[in-house]
Design brief:
264 residues, Methyltransferase, Cobalt-precorrin-4 Transmethylase, Domain 2, 8 helices, five-stranded mixed beta sheet, 2 domains, disordered N terminus, single chain, five-stranded parallel beta sheet, Cobalt-precorrin-4 Transmethylase, domain 1
């Protein structure tokens, strides 16, 4: 059977099952895209991490729901293929965007291993870095790098090299997975690496649980980062040499003021 990009949320009768990899955004239901909601509506089976499924519970009532704990991504994806092989339309749910540190890549890796004929449809969502940047103002207006501090799948030595390279090149740096119960010191090490290339007064934004009911926003500096304000639900955005703070917001100039007069 010819494999193809489905381009829609519901399977067509002549084809096998369909897996929608659905990004549900940073957390608040108002940030879920219409396409994502349509896919959830048309799916027979919903699969996801239990915390993410709780956030979208109003939209998956009456569906076959398969939830699991953190660290069981491979099992969830394999189950999605098993359900789709039986002809079901499946939505496997990712927080944020499924193509950024999430489920899209793993689904395709498993599809390759299985030589699967199941259709795969990726549904983009608002990524954590977008949601957090909006809360902070405009910190990503110039070149930036996103770096995860999770060394579960990537050796810490590689992460250190990436931090050093991004900091030395003056990228704004968005840090994902900054801290967990087992990784309390990685964010401290990351701050120290960046500090080798940046002033201690460099603005830093810490956004935890963006768009959710317990959202917290802290604007600080590289020297004054409060590590107790950071957890696994946080995204940390470290400004570049041009980033400044104003009225509790972070702004990274694009360079307009160098070419244009911004007032009349």
């Amino acid at each position: 059977m010819e494999r193809r990009d489905h381009g829609g949320c519901g399977k067509e009768k002549e084809y096998m099952g369909l897996i929608n990899v659905v990004g549900t955004g940073p957390g608040g239901v108002e940030h879920i895209t219409p396409e994502a909601l349509d896919c959830l509506k048309k799916s027979d089976v919903i699969i996801g991490y239990s915390t993410y499924l709780e956030l979208i519970s109003p939209f998956i009532e009456g569906k076959k729901v398969l939830s699991s704990a953190m660290m069981q991504e491979v099992d969830r994806c394999i189950r999605a293929f098993e359900e789709a092989d039986d002809g079901a339309t499946v939505s496997i749910v990712s927080g944020g965007d499924p193509g950024i540190y999430a489920m899209a890549g793993l689904i395709y890796e498993i599809a390759v291993e299985r030589d699967s004929d199941v259709d795969i449809h990726i549904v983009p969502g608002i990524a954590a870095v977008n949601g957090c940047a909006a809360r902070l103002g405009a910190p990503l207006m110039h070149d930036f790098a996103a770096i995860s501090l999770s060394d579960l799948l990537t050796p810490w030595e590689v992460i250190e090299k990436r931090l050093d390279a991004a900091a030395s090149a003056d990228f704004v740096i968005a840090i994902y997975n900054p801290k967990s119960k087992k990784r309390k010191d990685h964010i401290v090490k990351a701050r120290d690496i960046v500090s080798q290339h940046r002033s201690g007064k460099t603005p830093v934004g810490i956004v935890t649980a963006a768009t959710r009911g317990h959202e917290e926003i802290h604007v600080t500096t590289l020297d004054d980062m409060d590590m107790d304000k950071i957890n696994m639900q946080s995204t940390v955005i470290i400004g570049n040499s041009k980033t400044f703070s104003w009225k509790g917001k972070l702004i990274t100039p694009r360079g307009y003021s160098d070419k244009y007069r911004l007032t009349k």
